[in-house]
Amino acid sequence: MSDAAVLSVRNASKSFGSRKALDGVSLNVARGEMIALIGPSGSGKSTLLRSISGLQTIDPGPGKIEAFGQVVQSEGRVSRKVRDVRIRVGFIFQQFNLVGRLTLFSNVALGSLGRIPMLRGLFGQWPAETKTAAMAALARVGVADYAGQRANTLSGGQQQRGAIARALVQKAKVILADEPVASLDPVSARKVMELLHDLNTTDGLTVVVTLHQVDYATRYCRRVVALKAGKIVYDGPATGLDRTRLIDIYGPEFEDVFWEGAPK
Fold first, then answer.
1. Contacts of 225 (CB under 8 A, 6+ apart)
2. pTM of this prediction?
3. Tag placement on the chain: N or C end, fewer CB within 10 Å?
4. pLDDT of 154-179, one tens digit each?
């Protein structure tokens, strides 16, 4: 693992039956980067992100994934110490992954469970430090006014910002966001992307985000990694994604993945 890398993937493969979702993928992520993972549906983006966090095991063999210099998984087995890594890695899901019957505050406070006794968290007996951190995080993402509201009564954009606030309470140093704006309207999607970008540039958090919207990838991320059929086919600056390269990644109908303002 490179000294500058906080995440390292080496020769990782993952098969589902006869289909290879990942095929010998290698990737280094440096501290403070914001990277977009793009590619057609089924290209391996979500599988790669879930494998980095240890939510998905890779195939047995030479593949190895590390975070902060610690092994997440190797030889097809998740490390027994993966929990120590996950405390520092926040995972943002497409469908928010909040507990609908709990208030937004309680959902955000759950980010502290890796650092406080489990029973205290289960019974909502939050330490003063957690309460302060939760409210500060909610204010940071702009939804503090909804702290006492049940999560399932909030809009998708509000819930997704709550999920990001939970990662802040977790004190995550890396945020892995798996299609965090795919189910949001354009205005909410832009706000979430702006928030992730601000956390990267202002707070120095490392962000890896999978996206279907190529224009968001080029607008908010300096580095873009493209996958196709489980292999990395591009890894470089967003400015390098010209028309020819995008046709190679997505095929001749690549315009369908763009919104207004995308590169031509």
1. 27, 35, 36, 37, 38, 232, 234, 235
2. 0.91
3. C
4. 999 999 999 999 999 999 999 999 99
